[in-house]
Amino acid sequence: MRFGPVRLADAEGALLGHSVKIGTMKLSKGHRLSADDVAALAEADVTEVIVARLESDDLPEDEAAARIAAAIAPDHLRFSRATTGRVNVYATAAGLFVANRAVVDRLNRIDPAITLACLADHVAVDAGDMVATIKIIPLAVPQALVERAQALLRADRAFEVKPFTPRRAALVATELPSLKSQVMDKTRAVLTARLLQSGSRLDSEQRVAHTTEAVAAAISDAADSHDLIIVFGASAVADPDDVIPAAIRRAGGVVEHVGMPVDPGNLLVLGRLGEIPVLGAPGCARSPRENGFDWILDRLIAGEWPSKADITGLGVGGLLKEIPTRPQPREGSAGKRPGPVGIVVLAAGQASRMGPDGRHKLLAEFGGMPLVRRSVETAIAAAPGRVIVVTGHREAEIRAALAGLQTTFVSNPDYRSGMASSLIAGLSALDAGAGGMLVMLADMPGVTSAHLAKLIAAFETESGRAVVRAVAGGQRGNPVILPKETFHAVRQLVGDVGARHIVERCGLPVIDVELGAAARLDLDTPEAIVAAGGLLRD
């Protein structure tokens, strides 16, 4: 491929190296210039353009990306249509994303023109989550390079999604006078929620004395009707011959590993009774926050059996964030007041359910005012000086509707990829001292400044150490306040997903604040806007 400036008279058939906009005429990067395009540019007094000229063995960026994607085994994966040299890959089932670093690295080292980025190895995903993206950097690449990439991906699997196989789990919990029954009740509830994420269920619970004999008998009993056994000890495992590993052996099972280089999660026990996994849970697994127990549990439910090498290889990346319930925290942070809450109003979406006529729901009028302006004014009234608006689709019109308001605008050029990119864009503009981010959808006309103040007050009551979520009749809704501790997880989001997974797995308390019907009234269709009293505008 030859890239560079050429005289307009010589540009027909070449690909534009950069987009061109003259008056109402806009030609996108990568557009193949026709004779009519050249004539129109000439009328606008353009004499030179930057283009790419393909050689006989070159493939255009979209074709190259599509061919490379087609070489990936499609099991439990969905591939987007190639556009701007990119193919995105999505999971079609809940499961474990497994990456082969060696293959991914080899592909990325074929040539800088070809790139493959994916999630980290052994990450749990939901159906619909984006797991990888193939991107061709220039406008075209030699076919020989594409064929090398195809051959590599056909010979070795670069990544896959291993679907979760739901398990029927039994909980064996030991009792000591020092362990309160309320703690055991919470442990059961947390484990039930943790299993539900993979479609598994907790079928039974036995509470027994903290002795080898009692635990062994409970394990043997559970093995008759369950395919996963989880043991929570009232006292932490202190030795490979302690109560839980000894009980697994007494029941006729095998202990395969004790301990793991993941903190929290060090004191995990992995064993089996025949083909049934028996997990001795570390104490940190009483909290819903991610810990080493999750990593091993996910592998088992996805059909893997972690080896000693697998477990001992988890040290890099194994230092996880502190959990609030840890008995001996690495560093104390009590007494710190949370910073102020910033409000991020999401107004970048494409409003795809509004139909083909091009009307934008955020420009619909309520009481003579565009919906987006009404929402942003509501936010400003609740937190003056701390409102960020994320724009993308029809950005100029949305910003014009907000003219004169004291707000910070953030542009999201990747808005087509979904909500995650808008959350990240909004977070990037948040004040460094903010203690939380209130995420507000711009299409919820029922939410008032009093509602927002109620949510912020609840957040401050919890000293910024809880997620605060609006509910309607007990059903989760919006807005939601995410504490500073969740910001790192927000930055890892990809695709058309919100913060629900973060709320469920962050390990922080979730405070539900009843707002009534307003918490679930968002306007996605023309019919919904009219029913809510709005007037559609072109």
Structure description:
It is a single chain. α5 links the parallel β15 and β16. Residues 323-335 have low confidence and may be disordered. Helices cover 28% and strands 27% of the residues. It has four domains: 2-53, Molybdopterin biosynthesis moea protein, domain 2 (Alpha-Beta Complex); 58-163, Pyrimidine nucleoside phosphorylase-like, C-terminal domain (Aldehyde Oxidoreductase, domain 3, Alpha-Beta Complex); 171-313, MoaB/Mog-like domain (Molybdenum Cofactor Biosythetic Enzyme, Chain A, 3-Layer(aba) Sandwich); 341-530, Spore Coat Polysaccharide Biosynthesis Protein SpsA, Chain A (Alpha-Beta Complex). The protein is of the alpha/beta class and 538 residues long. The strands form eight sheets. It has a seven-stranded mixed beta sheet, with helices on both faces. The chain has a six-stranded mixed beta sheet with strand order 16-15-17-20-19-18, with helices on both faces.
Q: What is the 3D form?
A: flat
CATH topology of the largest domain: Spore Coat Polysaccharide Biosynthesis Protein SpsA, Chain A
Q: CATH H level of the largest domain: which superfamily?
A: Spore Coat Polysaccharide Biosynthesis Protein SpsA, Chain A
Q: From the alpha-carbon coordinates, what is the Rg to the nearest angstrom?
A: 28 Å
Helicity range of the residues? 25-40%
Question: What is the count of distinct domains?
Answer: 4
Largest sheet: 7 strands, mixed
Number of helices: 16
Class based on secondary structure composition and strand pairing:
alpha/beta
Name the strands of the widest sheet in spatial order. 25-24-21-26-28-27-29
Q: Which residues sit in consecutive blocks of at least 5 with pLDDT less than 50?
A: 323-335
Oligomer: single chain
Number of strands: 29
Estimated share of beta-strand residues: 25-35%
Gross CATH architecture of the largest domain: Alpha-Beta Complex
